[in-house]
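seq:
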Amino acid sequence: MPRPLHAADPPSLGRVAFVLLRTSHPGNVGAAARAMRTMGLVDLRLVAPRHDDVAERPEARAFASGATEVLERARRYDTLAEAIGDAALAIAVSAEPREFGPQPAPPEACAADAMAVLAGDPSHRVAFVFGAERTGLSIDEVQACGRLVGIPASPSYSSLNLAQAIQVVAYCVRRAALDAAATEAPTPRGVPDAGEAGVADAADGDDGPRLADQRAVHGTLEHLERALLAIGFLDPAHPKKLMPRLRRLLLRARLRPEEVDLLRGVCKLMERGGPR
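struct:
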């Protein structure tokens, strides 16, 4: 049976956040809210916008064209780390790759990966990160994310404004969520569903699918940096590219909570100068 043109919103969309950095114009925030809401997305996060009340300004509400629920629920953060802290996967959206950052992939592939992460455990969240209107994302901001979306366009003119980029990504996320919901196998009677199984597996340890969130991963990176300084492996005067490479390694690994605990235990031992 063909899928209805306007299908119900899959519940997984409620665990997808769109993060906007340093937005300058209230109209762009309103247009972003409209683009998200038409695709069933409601979690809008604003990092260091030019105006603290950007989501409440008349221009934002006008451009939202009725998607005021998204504006009213929008949360403001001071840093990107805070905004993506609860996400199991953060995906940057940028026209250009960055050194030691993830390689760009089309939005369809990243959206499918996001749905796979959400299916892994009911506690997982995913964040798509968009840069400022004029400057986009910095090198550090792209490096802070585990994947990178590049929207294919004409090589002679590939410029998209913020709301257009959000609309493309939001559409791909919705399609991926609908595809994932359509392929979910029915649960036999007496067998726990995917959410219950994920929680049980996570409790078992090594076989669990639950991933550490970005707050834990970046905390591990900071701890690792201190430990490497303590043993003299990292020279603060000449750090070269050691920490960006390690950050890329840990983000690519998609650490589990028990693996974070293991690494931090190693870091503590390094800081103490070895076993006692």
